[in-house]
Specification:
The protein has 333 residues and is α/β, with parallel strands linked by helices. An eight-stranded mixed beta sheet has the order 4-3-5-2-6-7-1-8. Keywords: Acyltransferase, Lipid biosynthesis, Lipid metabolism, Membrane, Phospholipid biosynthesis, Phospholipid metabolism, Transferase, Transmembrane, Transmembrane helix.
Length: 333
């Protein structure tokens, strides 16, 4: 095992990466708070600045996939679809089977230049989560209560507010929301991962495969009943594609591997240099002092930081996800 592979397995290294993400996230949240004064003066400038700030945060996670785990992300699609990626607003209908599906999606967002402006439909509880939820708030993310009677209007109004967004954006959702606004297309993304476990990243280079399909909005029925049938058929096709991948290891279509860019790594190295240099100097000073109280306090801080990072990771766990829509289905039964 080489030195780099050994370091990837060490908890202390994981903790330092988590420290950089959380502290830089809090700094970014503070800067985002300061940009609120721009909203009544120049809303579009506010949005552009917050896209850059969000990119600086999310790209740290993308760096883990692209550079730390060396994950290869392959698209199975056609050239016409690839030409449209990152060149228009889109609603992304994303299946969610693994905890890192969102990270694979963010990787594609980064490679096609829409990571900072990417949106999601998030459950309202995440609004209170530091770093992640707070960043989404400043990005005008639509937060849902997971009750469709209330969320129907919330989603439509939220997307209508984003209709004049100054940069191309992808709105990731498990189902296509109503209301066209300024959106031009819906894209179906089917993700499958040959290795979906974080702790295996240090031992091998996982592979993620995605098949995007583009549907211009004019091809999607406006009638609610017809739209429901269209969506039902779409998910049947997604299930069939997953079964095909399980058997053959590939999706249909031409293979594309968008080149990774250096900005995610450079951004992380910047934050690591800024934040870890004073931290390591402080840690050396604490242990050099020989004070039991100082050492115990520092170790307590490390333990609290570890707990906080694990709680943030827990936000992405599927078993803690929403049963959104199940209540409606149960009522009908």
């Amino acid at each position: 095992m080489g030195l780099l592979a050994f370091l990837k397995t060490q908890f202390v290294v994981h903790l330092l990466i988590g420290f950089v993400f959380v502290v830089s996230g809090l700094i970014i949240n503070f800067i985002q708070l300061c940009t609120l004064v721009l909203w009544p003066v120049n809303k579009q400038l506010y949005r552009r600045l917050n896209c850059r700030l969000a990119y600086s945060l999310w790209s740290q996670l993308v760096m883990l996939l692209e550079w730390w785990s060396r994950t290869e992300c392959t698209l199975f699609t056609d050239q016409a679809t690839v030409r449209c990626l990152g060149k228009e607003h889109a609603v992304i209908i994303l299946n969610h089977n693994f905890e890192i599906d969102f990270l694979c999606g963010w990787t594609m967002c980064e490679r096609f230049g829409v990571l900072g402006s990417s949106k999601v439909l998030a459950k309202r509880e995440l609004l209170c989560v530091p770093v992640i939820g707070w960043t989404w708030y400043f990005l005008e993310i639509v937060f849902c209560r997971r009750r469709w009677e209330e969320d129907r209007d919330t989603v439509v109004r939220g997307l209508q507010r984003l209709a004049d967004y100054p940069e191309y954006m992808w709105v990731c959702t498990g189902r296509p929301p109503g209301g066209e606004g300024g959106l031009r297309a819906a894209a179906d993304l089917s993700w499958l991962n040959s290795s979906g476990r974080l702790w295996r990243w240090a031992q091998q280079a996982p592979r993620s495969c995605c098949q995007p399909r583009r549907f211009p909005l004019e091809e999607i029925p406006l009638d609610e009943k017809e739209a429901a049938q269209w969506l039902h058929k779409l998910y049947q096709e997604k299930d069939a594609l997953q079964e095909m991948y399980s058997r053959e290891g590939v999706f249909p279509g031409q293979q594309f591997q968008p080149a990774r860019r250096p900005w995610t790594l450079l951004n992380f190295l910047f934050w690591a240099t800024v934040l870890l240099s004073p931290l390591l100097s402080f840690a050396v000073g604490v242990f050099a002092s020989g004070s039991p109280l100082s050492i115990l306090t520092f170790l307590g801080f490390v333990g609290a930081a570890s707990f906080g990072v694990r709680r943030l990771i827990g936000v992405t766990e599927i078993e803690k996800g929403s049963s959104y829509g199940n209540q409606e289905f149960k009522k009908k039964e």
